[in-house]
Amino acid sequence: MSHLPARAVIALVPVLALLAGCGADDSSAGGDNATLRISAIPDQDPAELTAREEALAEYLSSALDVEVEYVPVTDYAASVSLFRAGDLDTVFYGGLTGVQARLQTPGATLLAQRDIDAEFRSVFIANADTGIEPFDDVAGLTAFEDTRFTFGSESSTSGRLMPEYFLREAGVDSGSELSGRPGYSGSHDATIDLVEAGSYEGGALNVQVWEARTAAGTVDTDKVVEVFTTPPYSDYHWLGGPDLEDRFGAGFTEELRTALLELDGSTPEEQAVLERYGAGKLIPTDADSYERIEEIGRTLGLVS
Fold first, then answer.
1. What is the pLDDT of residue 20?
2. What pLDDT is stored for residue 268 in this prediction?
3. Is pLDDT at 19 greater than 60 in this prediction?
């Protein structure tokens, strides 16, 4: 540069300053300026989901002293792809999508689950016009043979994976023994609405969403009825990405886990967050809790 004319050196100054500024992107800042990007599978009404995740973002920002941003995703598969690519730092997954994301993302870490997730359940519902009566045993699922039936998302644990597993346990093959191919509503709320409207005669969904909707009075129980609640299984959990230490400093993964586990409702703000998740507290979890989900996923061709 010593051989350049003075005016050329002056012209280079703003260019060099601009290039220096480009290196300060918060996605690679290694701590001070990085933004923690959280997300969740889009399994229910988008407005409810946004309110819940933004409440968690506010809590985590205060607990960890970092900027936290909720990043919505379009579907279940997108959440897995974005997590694998490093565009999401921590995601609230269902059991199946959590298994898929963890297997596809070396170094991903299970962080926590809600107290209700260790023994989660699905609900089978039917349009009242079918005449299907409530029953207490998996074998009763034969009542859905030859019906128009919808699951939730194709990758939903409580809206597809486990309901299909229990149907098979009853001897009902969703590919050949329903009336036509099964539907995939895309969310638990949509499953209720489609069965209530008569678009499908039966469906399966997350017990938490069913109970919340019926408690809120947004289900016409003269038109759609609960007929069976499944045995329990492990479901939702938080997964942390493999780059957390690089982006936020050594020990951050454990700090994030601790922040989640300390969300116990001890303040009104924490209580409000937990209520949005339908939980009393968050608890530890590990990969062993999801071995059954992985095994069933492989059997149904949803995990490779």
1. 38
2. 95
3. no
d(CA 206, CA 88): 25
Model pTM score: 0.85
| CATH number belonging to the domain at 121-229, selected among 3.40.50.2300, 3.90.226.10, 3.40.190.10, 3.40.50.1440 | 3.40.190.10
Residue 66 in contact with residue 13, Cβ under 8 Å?
Answer: no
Q: Which two tokens stand for residue 67?
A: 């900027």
pLDDT in tens, 177-223: 999 999 999 999 999 999 999 999 999 999 999 999 999 999 999 99
pLDDT tens for 22-73 read 333 444 445 557 999 999 999 988 999 999 999 999 999 999 999 999 999 9
Fold classified for 35-118+235-299:
D-Maltodextrin-Binding Protein; domain 2 (3.40.190)
Q: What share of residues in the chain are helix, strand, coil (percent, to 5)?
A: 45, 15, 40
Residue type, 213: R
The rounded distance, in Å, linking the Cα atoms of 162 and 155 is: 11
Half-sphere exposure of residue 65, counting CA atoms within 13 Å on the CB side? 5
Give me the DSSP letters along 155-212: T-IIIIIHHHHHHHHTT--TTTSSSSSPEE-SSHHHHHHHHHHTSSSEEEEEHHHHHH
Residues 150/200, Cβ–Cβ less than 8 Å: yes
Residue for token pair 């039917």: 126
**Three-class DSSP category at 258:** helix
DSSP 83-94: HHTTS-SEEEE-
- Lowest-confidence region among 4-18, 64-78, 100-114, 116-130: 4-18
Tokens for 128, please give them.
């009242």
Residues of the chain with CATH 3.40.190.10: 35-118+235-299, 121-229
**Contact partners, residue 144, CB within 8 Å, separation at least 6:** 124, 126, 132, 167, 172, 178, 201, 202
What separation in angstroms does the CA of 93 have from each of 79, 102, 239? 9, 10, 7
Rounded-to-integer distance, Cα 138 and Cα 295, Å: 20
